[in-house]
Input
Amino acid sequence: MNDTSISGAAAGAASSAMAGTAPGATPPTDAKKLHEVAQQFEAIFVRQMLAEARKSNMGDTLFSGQGTDTFREMQEQTIAAATTKSGGLGFAKMIEKQLTAQMARTNAAATAAAATSAATAKKD
Output
Protein backbone atom coordinates (compact mmCIF):
# COMPACT_ATOMS: atom_id res chain seq x y z
CA MET A 1 0.00 0.00 0.00
CA ASN A 2 1.23 3.46 -0.86
CA ASP A 3 2.46 5.52 2.11
CA THR A 4 0.55 8.64 1.12
CA SER A 5 -2.85 7.28 0.15
CA ILE A 6 -5.47 4.86 1.36
CA SER A 7 -5.89 1.82 -0.85
CA GLY A 8 -8.80 1.78 -3.29
CA ALA A 9 -10.57 -0.88 -1.24
CA ALA A 10 -10.20 1.17 1.93
CA ALA A 11 -11.49 4.32 0.22
CA GLY A 12 -14.45 2.36 -1.12
CA ALA A 13 -15.16 0.96 2.33
CA ALA A 14 -15.04 4.45 3.83
CA SER A 15 -17.46 5.87 1.28
CA SER A 16 -19.73 2.84 1.69
CA ALA A 17 -19.65 3.20 5.45
CA MET A 18 -20.34 6.94 5.22
CA ALA A 19 -23.29 6.40 2.84
CA GLY A 20 -25.55 5.22 5.67
CA THR A 21 -27.27 2.52 3.64
CA ALA A 22 -30.02 1.64 6.14
CA PRO A 23 -31.82 4.39 8.09
CA GLY A 24 -31.79 3.83 11.84
CA ALA A 25 -29.27 0.98 11.94
CA THR A 26 -25.79 0.40 10.59
CA PRO A 27 -25.19 -3.03 9.11
CA PRO A 28 -22.36 -4.92 10.86
CA THR A 29 -20.37 -5.13 7.63
CA ASP A 30 -20.25 -1.33 7.38
CA ALA A 31 -19.17 -1.04 11.03
CA LYS A 32 -16.41 -3.57 10.40
CA LYS A 33 -15.29 -1.73 7.25
CA LEU A 34 -15.32 1.56 9.11
CA HIS A 35 -13.16 0.04 11.86
CA GLU A 36 -10.68 -1.30 9.29
CA VAL A 37 -10.48 2.02 7.43
CA ALA A 38 -9.92 3.94 10.67
CA GLN A 39 -7.09 1.55 11.58
CA GLN A 40 -5.54 1.89 8.13
CA PHE A 41 -5.66 5.68 8.40
CA GLU A 42 -3.96 5.59 11.80
CA ALA A 43 -1.29 3.23 10.43
CA ILE A 44 -0.59 5.65 7.57
CA PHE A 45 -0.33 8.53 10.04
CA VAL A 46 2.07 6.62 12.34
CA ARG A 47 4.17 5.53 9.35
CA GLN A 48 4.46 9.15 8.21
CA MET A 49 5.50 10.24 11.71
CA LEU A 50 8.19 7.56 11.82
CA ALA A 51 9.44 8.51 8.35
CA GLU A 52 9.74 12.16 9.38
CA ALA A 53 11.57 11.17 12.57
CA ARG A 54 13.98 9.07 10.50
CA LYS A 55 14.77 12.08 8.30
CA SER A 56 16.44 13.76 11.27
CA ASN A 57 19.27 11.24 10.62
CA MET A 58 21.35 12.24 13.67
CA GLY A 59 24.57 11.73 11.70
CA ASP A 60 24.05 8.01 10.97
CA THR A 61 25.99 7.79 7.71
CA LEU A 62 27.97 4.64 8.50
CA PHE A 63 25.19 2.26 7.44
CA SER A 64 23.50 4.10 4.62
CA GLY A 65 22.32 2.90 1.27
CA GLN A 66 19.30 1.68 -0.65
CA GLY A 67 19.11 -1.61 1.27
CA THR A 68 19.16 0.14 4.63
CA ASP A 69 16.52 2.63 3.49
CA THR A 70 14.27 -0.20 2.28
CA PHE A 71 14.75 -2.07 5.55
CA ARG A 72 13.89 1.02 7.59
CA GLU A 73 10.75 1.64 5.53
CA MET A 74 9.66 -1.96 6.12
CA GLN A 75 10.47 -1.54 9.79
CA GLU A 76 8.33 1.62 9.98
CA GLN A 77 5.45 -0.13 8.25
CA THR A 78 5.61 -3.05 10.67
CA ILE A 79 5.83 -0.80 13.73
CA ALA A 80 2.92 1.32 12.47
CA ALA A 81 0.73 -1.75 11.86
CA ALA A 82 1.57 -3.25 15.26
CA THR A 83 0.97 0.06 17.04
CA THR A 84 -2.41 0.50 15.39
CA LYS A 85 -3.58 -3.07 16.05
CA SER A 86 -2.70 -2.78 19.74
CA GLY A 87 -4.77 0.35 20.23
CA GLY A 88 -2.08 2.64 18.98
CA LEU A 89 -2.39 6.30 19.64
CA GLY A 90 -6.17 6.15 19.80
CA PHE A 91 -6.71 7.99 16.52
CA ALA A 92 -8.50 5.03 14.91
CA LYS A 93 -10.96 4.86 17.80
CA MET A 94 -11.64 8.61 17.62
CA ILE A 95 -12.06 8.52 13.83
CA GLU A 96 -14.41 5.56 14.09
CA LYS A 97 -16.44 7.29 16.82
CA GLN A 98 -16.75 10.51 14.79
CA LEU A 99 -17.73 8.72 11.60
CA THR A 100 -20.26 6.55 13.42
CA ALA A 101 -21.84 9.69 14.91
CA GLN A 102 -21.87 11.30 11.46
CA MET A 103 -23.56 8.21 10.01
CA ALA A 104 -26.18 8.31 12.78
CA ARG A 105 -26.92 12.00 12.06
CA THR A 106 -27.16 11.27 8.34
CA ASN A 107 -29.50 8.34 8.97
CA ALA A 108 -31.67 10.44 11.32
CA ALA A 109 -31.90 13.25 8.77
CA ALA A 110 -32.82 10.77 6.02
CA THR A 111 -35.51 9.21 8.24
CA ALA A 112 -36.93 12.64 9.13
CA ALA A 113 -36.96 13.69 5.47
CA ALA A 114 -38.72 10.46 4.49
CA ALA A 115 -41.32 10.95 7.24
CA THR A 116 -41.94 14.56 6.18
CA SER A 117 -42.27 13.50 2.57
CA ALA A 118 -44.70 10.72 3.48
CA ALA A 119 -46.80 13.10 5.62
CA THR A 120 -46.93 15.65 2.80
CA ALA A 121 -47.94 12.99 0.28
CA LYS A 122 -50.65 11.71 2.65
CA LYS A 123 -52.18 15.23 2.99
CA ASP A 124 -52.51 15.53 -0.79
About this structure: DSSP finds four helices and no strands in the chain.
